[in-house]
Specification:
- By secondary structure, this protein is an all-alpha fold.
- 73% of the residues lie in helices and 0% in strands.
- It has 23 helices and no strands.
- It is globular, with a radius of gyration of 24 Å.
């Protein structure tokens, strides 16, 4: 099972009864075929054109910069690297500290679950754009942009981990034991390995998010990456990319649990700058600027007379025409999900020891590490420079990144399966009859777990000029139309929650939880 994916012990999968296996297999086959068919039918309705004059020449220049990076790195990228790690480390730490107590009551409060779903549905970059209006280009903006959605995510996943614990030790406690004492003495010792493992995974995600904060002007590594790529300084961009990949690759060493407290304390010297916030301006922004004017000026008389309703209709009429952006967001989300499935199906067998040979395992494994390490926004930005502005770079970025994550986990799961002695001799037959029936349910479960992430990233790709909801959100912030931007953020959150709810209904019955995405 994919929940055992972080374990080194081999997994012996017991096949279900043939009638259940056949029924579930047919359902997955119809689901995958329907998803790919929908992609083929709807893809012509999107703008997938290549508008760049000579993409191959530009690609060769980028590859040359990656192969021969510029060694002349200045002090500024080094400081940006330290800030990238500091923001990620403290954002993850604060998110975990806030999410853990919320997890204790998460399953018993529908209001809390709804609030957490809304908070984590908004991308870290959107939180940064919102917080920039109050705290400016400061450490508070970066830390809060990571902490807020991560706290909601930690609350959900920590609660799922606690719910899956054996109940016998918990029931052995006295009946009068409080919820906190039950957690400290019974649940925490059993759940600690999985809690720590998932927190380490979120720290790796926070490193990528911290890099991306540079795209909105915060002085992290992404700020210099975007500038170098946009100005065609590919040798400098190649050096910065190698620094980023080495940062992720060496995480098990410098991010060891014994070193993290030292890094956390030392990074306090580098965090900054800290904003000088006027409380009156902060209160005005929260209570006035982000809300529609008719709602701010509402009174009992305007409600009774209907002026509030007519004023809200007039305000809504000033919003940009959102149907094309909403359609592009949903279309790109569907294309990205189907593309991720195709990438995963094509690559995981080549990376597994039962199907691939030594050459394909190493080359495919290296490709998967590269694709899953590079954030979608960065991939889309690079592809946008190559292919020009359209939905095509965004589609490719979503498919390659998320497909690589799923393929990596499926190959890792397949490598842990012990095949029977009577297994088929051919690699194709082994994949078709032995591995695929056992891996496919987990692959589709992971695919629909990633659906919410794909929609979040689809919206944020609008910051690159892709015509999704994120494009209008970014434009609203640029023109200081905060009420409009906040309304679009709420619309994006509702859309993400709806897609996640649909994905849960389509998800196969598999013993898998979100913490199985630990890489």
């Amino acid at each position: 099972m994919l929940t055992d994916i972080s374990s080194a012990a081999p997994v012996v999968s017991k096949p279900p009864p043939w009638w259940k296996a056949r029924s579930e297999g047919m359902r997955l086959l119809r689901l995958g075929a329907g998803l790919i068919l929908a992609m083929l039918v709807l893809a012509p309705f999107g703008d997938l054109s290549i508008t760049s004059r000579d993409p191959w020449q530009e690609l060769l220049r980028m590859l040359a910069g990656l192969v021969s990076p510029s060694p002349s790195l200045l002090e500024s990228p080094l400081h940006a690297l330290i800030l990238t790690v500091s923001f990620a480390l403290w954002g993850t730490l604060l998110g975990a500290l806030l999410g853990l107590p919320l997890a204790l009551v998460y399953s018993r409060s529908r209001l809390l679950r709804g609030a957490c779903a809304g908070l984590r549905a908004i991308h870290e970059l959107f939180w940064a754009l919102l917080l920039l209006q109050v705290f400016g280009l400061s450490a508070v903006t970066a830390l809060a942009a990571i902490t807020i959605p991560y706290a909601a995510t930690f609350a959900k996943v920590y609660a799922e981990i606690l719910e899956q614990l054996p109940q016998a030790p918990i029931k052995a406690l006295p009946a009068a034991t409080s919820r906190l004492m039950r957690f400290v003495y019974a649940e925490l010792p059993m759940a600690w390995p999985r809690l720590a493992s998932y927190t380490r995974y979120r720290f790796e995600c926070a490193l990528r998010a911290s890099v991306l904060l540079g795209f909105v002007g915060l002085p992290t590594l992404g700020f210099y990456l975007e500038s170098a790529f946009r100005e065609g300084r590919y040798h400098e961009a190649g050096a910065l990319l190698w620094i980023f990949y080495l940062l992720i690759a060496t995480l098990p060493w410098w991010g060891h649990r014994r070193l993290l407290p030292v890094l956390a304390i030392a990074s306090l010297w580098w965090l900054g700058p800290w904003p000088n916030v006027n409380p009156a301006l902060l209160w005005r922004f929260v209570s006035h600027d982000i809300w529609p004017a008719p709602l701010v000026n509402a009174s009992l008389e305007t409600v009774v007379s209907g002026e509030l309703f007519s004023g809200m209709l007039q305000w809504a009429g000033q919003l940009p025409h959102l149907l094309p952006a909403l359609g592009n967001t949903l279309l790109l989300g569907l294309l990205g999900t189907a593309g991720s499935l195709l990438v995963a199906m094509a690559l995981w067998p080549l990376a597994s020891r039962h199907v691939g040979n030594r050459l394909t395992q190493r080359t495919t494994g290296g490709l998967l590490i590269f694709l899953r390490t590079t954030p979608e926004l960065m991939l889309a930005f690079i592809l946008l420079l190559l292919l020009g502005p359209s939905l095509l770079p965004a589609w490719l970025a979503l498919s390659l990144h998320n497909g690589a994550i799923i393929a990596f986990l499926c190959a890792r799961h397949a490598n842990q399966i012990q095949l029977p002695l009577s297994k088929p001799q051919g690699r194709l037959e082994c994949w078709l009859y032995e591995l695929n029936p056992r891996v496919a349910p987990g692959m589709f479960a992971l695919l629909f777990y990633r659906a919410e992430t794909i929609i979040r990233e689809t919206a944020i790709l609008g910051m690159l000029g892709v015509a999704t909801l994120g494009f209008h959100i970014d434009s609203s912030f640029e023109y200081m139309m905060f009420d409009q931007a906040f309304a679009l953020l709420l619309l994006t959150a509702i859309l993400n929650i709806a897609v996640d709810s649909l994905a849960r209904r389509l998800r196969p019955k598999s013993d898998i939880s979100e913490d199985s995405c630990v890489r």
